[in-house]
Amino acid sequence: MKIPKEIKLFCKKCKKHSVHKLKLFKEGSKSILKKHARKHEAKHNKGYGGKSRFVVHIKKQSKKPVFVATCIVCNAKKYYVAGNKAKKKAELV
């Protein structure tokens, strides 16, 4: 899926349509200090170390690519989700 590097979107800060630069969104690493992570560790480390059973989750084959749109005028950032699901990785042209 090919998407242009610059696209015209509505900016909430400027309150008008302006050109935005697009950059592919990359998720940060998960924190090990969060409550769900601590709970998961405690659940699988208690007792005499029997075999823990993990639930197998099937990953989706295709996902909607997410971009970070940065306004050129005021540098406000927002998420921009491309409408179509893409099996191939989204690339900026």
Distance between the termini: 10 Å
* Average pLDDT reading: 87
Shape: elongated
Number of strands: 6
Radius of gyration: 20 Å
Q: Which sheet architecture does the biggest sheet show? A: 4 strands, antiparallel
How do the SSEs run, as a string of H and E? EEEHEEE
The assigned CATH architecture of the domain at 1-26 and 62-93 is Roll
Poorly predicted runs: none
Q: What fold name stands as the CATH topology of the domain at 1-26 and 62-93?
A: Nuclear Transport Factor 2, Chain: A
Can you count the helices? 1
Strand order of the largest sheet: 2-3-4-5
Beta-strand content bin: 25-35%
SSE-based structural type? mainly beta
Which CATH top level class of the domain at 1-26 and 62-93 fits? Alpha Beta
Helix proportion range: 10-25%
Task: Kindly describe this structure.
With 93 residues, the protein is mainly β. It has a domain at 1-26 and 62-93: Nuclear Transport Factor 2, Chain: A. 12% of the residues lie in helices and 32% in strands. The protein has one helix and six strands; from the N terminus they run βββαβββ. The strands form two sheets. A four-stranded antiparallel beta sheet has the order 2-3-4-5, with no helix packed on it. The chain has a two-stranded parallel ribbon with strand order 1-6. Strand 4 (66-71) and strand 5 (77-81) form a beta hairpin. It is elongated. The termini are close together. The mean pLDDT is 87.
